[in-house]
Amino acid sequence: MKFYLNIIIYISLILSCTTKLISQSHNWVRSNPGGGGSFSTIGAGPTGTIVACSDLSGAYVSFDNGSSWSPRGAAQGLTETHISGIGFHPSDGNVFFIGTENGLFRTQDGGNSFTKVLAGGYITDIDINSNGFGYLTYQTAWNSTTPRVYKTINNGITWQLTVSNPPNGLHLLKVITHPSDVNTVYILSGKGRFACGDAELFRSTNSGASWTNLTTNLNPILDVELDPQNPSNVFLTTMEASCSAQYYWTSVNGNFYKSTDGGDTWGNPLSNNTGVIWPSTTNANIIRLIDPREPWPWNSKSGTYTSTDGGSSFTKTGDVVNWDTFFNNDLFYCYSSSYNGIIMTLGKDLSDNNNYFWVNYQWIFKTTDDGGTFHNIFTNTTNNQTWTSRGIDNVNMMDVDANKTNPDLIYQAYFDIGLWKSTDHGTSWYSCNPANYTGGWNGHGGNCAEVLSDPLRPNIVWATMSGNQQGQSPTYLLKNAQEGNRDQWNLSNNGLPQNLVMGLSIDNLSVVTNNRTLYITAYHDVYKSTDDGANWSKIFDCNGCNFTAVDHFNSSLIYAGGAGGVWKSENGGTSWDNISHADFASSSNQTFWDYGYDGVWCIETDPNIPNKVFVTAKGTSKGLYVSIDKGLNWQNYLQTITCEKSK
User: Fold this and answer.
1) Do the first three CATH levels of 33-381 and 395-639 match, i.e. the same topology?
2) What is the average pLDDT across 421-434?
3) Which fold is adopted by the domain 33-381?
4) pLDDT of the residue at 322
5) Alpha carbons 81 and 101: distance in angstroms, whole number
6) Fewer beta carbons within 10 Å, N or C terminal of the chain?
7) Domain ranges within the chain, ordered by starting residue
8) Which CATH architecture best describes the domain 395-639?
9) 333 pLDDT tier (thresholds 50, 70, 90)
10) Parallel/antiparallel/unpaired status of strands 623-627 and 600-605
11) CA angle 498, 501, 503 (to 5 degrees)
12) What pLDDT is attached to residue 157?
C-alpha cells in the first residue's frame, strides 16, 4: 500500500511570477480533505496534549482533544520526518519524546520546540516514570533485528546504553519502566513495519545488565501491561503468528494471562480473549481488550471486550458496527492495525483513562466512552459528501489544478487518498475516486499522479488513476464530463500503454468542441491526441520522459522531459531536439519513481510570455530553471526546490 519515501516537499509555483514576486512572503493555508498516509503510533500526555506520529510528515499535536492539529517538524527542531515512537512524562505535560529513524528528540515546552538528545538508531518506544527514570527501545537500523536498550536517570536529558544488549534476532516494539523500581524494565519484541523477530517478553531486574525471557513456553506475545494498582501483576495476551506468514498472524485466536509475581510464572490462561490491553487506572478489576488485527463485522472477536473481574471473563462492550466510517463509509477501509506493529495501533490518554486512540495506515480515531464507539478526529463534514481537514495531512500530493474559467473548482491528486475536488475554492473537498479504476482501493482511495481540468470547459477533466504507486500496470487515463463526479469516469486511453502514465498537458489554442489536442507520457514515451483524448498516437520515442508542456501562444511548440533531460519540438511533435541544461538528466540512471532520482521533475510554459519555459530538477544544488528563448539558454532561478506543476 504505502510506498515508503522520505518526505518530498511539493511547492506550487505561479509560473508567471518574477524574481521579486518569488521573494515576497505569502500566507499559505492548509487545504486538504484530511488523513492520508501511514500513522505509526499515537498517545496523549497528562495534560491531554495528543501526539500523532506519521511515516512521512513528522509529528502532529493537538491541544483541543483532536478538534484541530498542528504539524511539528524542522521549524520546531524536529528534523526527522519518519516518526517511529513516542513517550510521555507521566506527570509533566510539557515533557515528551519523539523517536525517529535517526535518533530521539525531547521537548520540555509542550511541543513548541525540540532538542535531539540521542543520535542514530531506529527508536520505537520510550517510557519514563514519575521520578524521571526510564528506558527506550532502539534498533541499530530501521530494518534490523539487532536491538539495544538505553536508560535515562535525568528525565530523558541524557541517555546511556544498558550494560547488556537483548538477544539478536529481535525487533523491539514496547518498553515498560517499573513505576517505582528503576532497576526493573520489560521489553516486548515482535513484528514492526520493516523487520520481524520472535514475539517474546523480556525482563531485566538489574537496569539492563542481564535479560530474562519470561515467555519461552507461551505462544507469540501480542501485548503486555502492568497492573496500575499493583505492578507485581502483569497482564499478557498471546496470538498465533509467524514472521513467515503472509499477514504475520495466522488466526485471530489468542489468550489472556495474568502473572502475580512480576512475570516469573503465568499459569493457565484466564480467558480466550486477546488484543491490546487497556487496564483501568482506578479499578483493578476492570480490564479492556481491543484486537486491531481484523476489526470488521464478520469477525466475531472484533470490537471492545471488558472484564470486571480482573480478567477472568470478558463481555463485548463495543461493537464495530457502531464505529465512525467518515467518508469511506466502509469499516474495512477505515479500521486496521498500524504498520509499525499491532500494539502501536492503540494509544493511551494519560489525562483521561476513558479515552483511547487508534491509528493505522491512513486514519486517526478516538474513543471517549471506554471503547464503546470510535470517531474520527482528522476531518470534518457538513453533509457527509464534502470534507475539511482538521490539520492532520500525511499525504503525497502529486498534482493540483485550478480551473481557469471557474477558479472555485480545484482538483488535488494524491497517493493513497486519490483524486479530490473542491467547488468552494479549497474550503471543502469531495472524493472523485471511481471504484472500477482504483484497484484494491475500490474507490475508497487510490493513486492519482495527474489531473487536468480543461481551462475553457470546466465540466471536463482528465486524470490518471491506479491502485499502484509507481506507475505499474494497470494505470489508466480517464475522462469525466461531470466535473469529476466519481460515477462518471470513462477510459480515455485508446492507443496508450497502461503503465507510467503521467505528464498530461493541453494545447489551449486547440479546437474546444471535442477536438482538444493533448499530450501525455506513457512508458517514458510521448503520445498525442487530437480528439479530446479518445485516441492516442506515439510521437516521440523518448525512452525517459515523464512530463510534457505546450507553449500558450504557439501550438507547435512542445516540450517533453524526464530522466534523460528536456526535448523540444517546434512542429507539434513531428521532430525533437535536445535542449537540456547539464543539471536536467538523472545522474544515476534512475527513473522518476526511484528513491535516488535527481532529474527533471516538472515542465511548464509561461501563460503570459511567449517562448518562456520553466523546468524543475530534483537534486542537490538543482532547482528551478527558466529559459526565455525556447530552451536555447537556461538560468538557474532558484536552487534546491522541488516543484509540482501549476497549470
Assistant:
1) yes
2) 96
3) Methylamine Dehydrogenase; Chain H (2.130.10)
4) 97
5) 8
6) N
7) 33-381, 395-639
8) 7 Propeller (2.130)
9) very high
10) unpaired
11) 160
12) 98
